[in-house]
Structures are given as structure tokens and as C-alpha cells.
Amino acid sequence: MNASVKQEAAAPGPGGPHGMRPGGPGGRRGMPDLTTGPIGRTLVMFALPVLGTNVLQSMNGTANAVWVSHALGPAALTATTNANTIFFLMLGAVFGITMAANLMIGQAIGAGDRSLAKRVIGTAIVFFLGVSMLVGLLGYTLTPAILTAMQTPPDAKIDAIIYLRVIFMAIPFMYFFSFIQMAQRGTGDSRTPFYFSLFAVAMEVTLNPLLILGIGPFPQMGIAGSATATLVSQTITLGLIIAWLWRKDSILILKRQDWPLLKPDLTIMRSLVTKGLPMGMQMLVVSGAALIMTRFVNGYGSQTAAAYGAAIQMWNYVQMPAMALGMAVSSMAAQNVGAGRMDRVDRVALIGSGYAAALSAGPILIIYVIEPIVMRLFLPAGSPSIPIAIHINSIVLWAFIPMGVSFVLSGIVRATGSVTPPLVAMLIALWVIRIPFAMLLEPHLGANAIWWSFPVGAGALLLMSTSWYRWGPWRKARLLDTTPRGEVPDLGQSLPGGVEETEAAEAAAEASREALIGSAPSAPNRPGSAAPAE
Q1: pTM to 2 decimals?
Q2: pLDDT digits (tens, 9 = 90+) for 69-89
Q3: From its phi and psi, is residue 12 left (phi > 0), alpha (psi between -120 and 50) or beta?
Q4: DSSP result, 459-524
Q5: Greatest Cα-to-Cα distance within the chain, rounded to the nearest angstrom
């Protein structure tokens, strides 16, 4: 470890220890500055709430399915499954735009450009309001046609229409809540989205049986009750989080004097779309490949299909730590890109990759040890599907280690604005390597060709991700035209991208950052230069 790294890990950053400065990048006292402080601890503390949010969402989906299936029967569960397929496609499409907003806000915050961050927020608010209203209206109107195109079973179609139409009514609130969560992470705050997600999930899980069955004063709504629980919980939570941000004077809130910023900035809007769509397309690429693999598996009968379904339930949880780290390193890297700290971005990538490998390997080893017990959570004791599922996991599970590292490296690359290469790598790994591998070798290996295609595709993805990270020109990409807050143009002391700076340059950059932070208020009536270190 060189002297500059030791100094960064041990000494207080601007405004206080562990890179916490008064007001923080988001304009709230105690908000972490992701451009200073020990990388490992900061990354873990940022990723844990993201992981918690992902786990909550998965548990919420499981709870909803249990209530619908037990209270209303298989046809109702089929209806929600078909409707949720469309719903997740809609969320996947907008995910890329929310992620682009996250990274753009992060770069502006990292550069210390509060005005630019506000402009991004104003344009993003108008964009998401328009898109969510349009999707909700079109979806509500076209629901019957969409379900017909999906060949929804006749006995489930009526329920599916009822359920999906209520979900489309909830889309504007869900889209905007998703945007606010991502924007908060861009400012460096991942805890607040977790707390409000916890509240939303708790409310939805509580309302589900009350509205489905009509318990107490609540109306008996059947399958519409499950969707209404989502609508009510998302709407109330969105209102509460906006009120909370207003009370805290968050940078995400546009007060009366900021209302002119609601006029869309076409340059920012263009970046939201051109950078967000490839990230959204990546989710569609993954979802499409999953459908193809499921089709292959279905050809081997219900026992193999049930085993595959049980294995997928475990895979979802195995992937969660690496996926949370991928989102965390994107937010962390975006702020450092904005601050001109490319040396620190490289260290985030190295530490994040190590964590992804370790946190993927841990759950895999646990599953291997207690697999027969875990399988009974998803399959009846003595089911012939259990040994098939154990065999599937013996081949597939370890593939999530290289895949987890790929998530992190792709997250780092995307943070600069280089969003197309990760999409191309995923497209090649899944559609050019995994799917053809399974198709071509299935006549020789049977179902094993399907299982082996997972590690083969994962290895190819890691190779491409590592190669692009190592040799690609992604370090030169930017989402926004920002001037790093540590840059001192007349002295030529800006930080070089991707190169370890000398100890003198590190000290000069830190001094210029402190000077800039001290010269501008980080929140109204709270000058950064006057506040004591925390």
C-alpha cells in the first residue's frame, strides 16, 4: 500500500472521518462522500441496504404468490404469473433509465456540481412522470390484447385482466418510487430507500390477505385485492418518502425557486435515453434467454421442470449479493468519476470483484452442504425431482462466482457512461454461446448440455468483461460534461484517469477539494467551511 492510500484510509476526508462531510453530497448532514474514506468498508455499508431491498422484494413476491394460490386457487396463481411477466418486463425497461439517472446524479455530485445535479433531477422528474403516465394508460387499455398475445389460459384470463389493470394503475407510482430510490443511491444514500422499501413491503404483505379475503372492515376483492395492495402500499410509501426528503431539504427536492429546472434539458434527456436504453435492454436480453432455457427444460418433462424451478429459487438468492455489489460499485464509481478519481475507481473494481467472488462462494458452499434440506423447502419430501435438482446445482451453482465478478466489472464500466459494451458482452454470452451450446450438444449430452451451458456462458462473460475493463477505452467515456471538483485548471493539478497519482498530487487534489467544499454551502444556512468535522 503506497503512502497516498494509507493516508486516504487513515486520515479524515474533507469535513470528517470516513469521508463524511457536513451536509454531504446530497445536502444532508452525515451523508457519505463516496469519493473518500476506506473503500472496502464504504462499499459494504452501501451495498448491504441494496441487498436488503432486493431480498425484501423477492420475499414480497413469494408472500403474494402464497396468498393468491392458497386463497384463490391455481387459476388465480396462473393469472398473476402471466400478469407479473408483463409487469416485470415493464420494470425492466425502465430500470435502465433509472440507473442512468442514478449515474448522472452521482457524477454531478462527485464533481461537486450541485447545479448540474439539480438539472438532472428536474429533467428526470418530468421524464418519469410522462413515461409512467403513458405506460399506465396504454397498458390499462391494451391489457386484454396483451394477455391474448401471451396465450393466457382461458380459465385464468379474466382474473389476469382484472389483476393487470390494477397493476397498470399502480405503474406511475411504482416508476417514480423506483426513480427516487435510484436517485438517492446516486447521492450516496442507500439506507433510506431500504427503510421505505421495508415499510412498503410490510404494508403490502399485511394488506394482501385483508383485501383478498375481505377480513374485518376491508372489502373482499379477490384477485384484485392482491394488486390493490400493491397500488395502495406504493402510493402511500411514495408520498411518505417525498415528504421525508422535503423535510430533510434533500437535493432531490425541487423547491419553488427550482421549478424552472422542470423544463426538460434536451442534452440530459438524450443521455437518459441513449445511456438508459442499453442498460434496460440488458435485462430484456437476460429475460429472453431465461425463457428459451425454460423451453429447453420443459422438453424433459414435469419432474425435470420442477427440479429446474426449485434450483432457480436458490439461484435467485445466490445472485443477490453480487447484484447488490454491482449496483453499489456503479454508484460509488460514478461519484469518483465525477471527482476525477479514476485511481480510486480502479481500487473499487478490485475490492468489489473480491467481495463478489467471496459473497457468491459463501452461499454456494452452504447450499452444497445442506442441499437436501433446502430442497424440501421447494419440493415435497421424496419427490423424484430432488435428485435432479441436486444434480443441476452440482454443475450450475459455481458458475455464479464468475458471473458475480462480471456484474461488478460491468457496473464499474457503466458508471463512466460506457453502457453498450456490457450489453454486447451479455448478448454474446447468452445468445451466441450459452443457448447455441445447449442446442448443439443436447443430442449428445441430453439435459446435461443445458446445465453445462451455464458455466460456459458465465466463463465467456467474465472473459469479455475483464478484457474490456483491462483494455477498453471506457475510462474516457462520460455521461455528463463535468469538471472534477478536485481539478485546478490554472495549476495543472487535475487527477490523471486510470493512473496512480504521486503523493504530492494527491495532497494538492485533497486541498483543492477541501477548498471547494468549504467555499460552497452543502445545505441552506449550513456553510461547509463553518461546520465542525464529524
Answers
A1: 0.72
A2: 777 876 777 777 667 767 777
A3: beta
A4: HHHHHHHHHHHHHSSGGG--SS----TT--GGGT-PPPTTSPPPHHHHHHHHHHHHHHHHHS-SBT
A5: 75
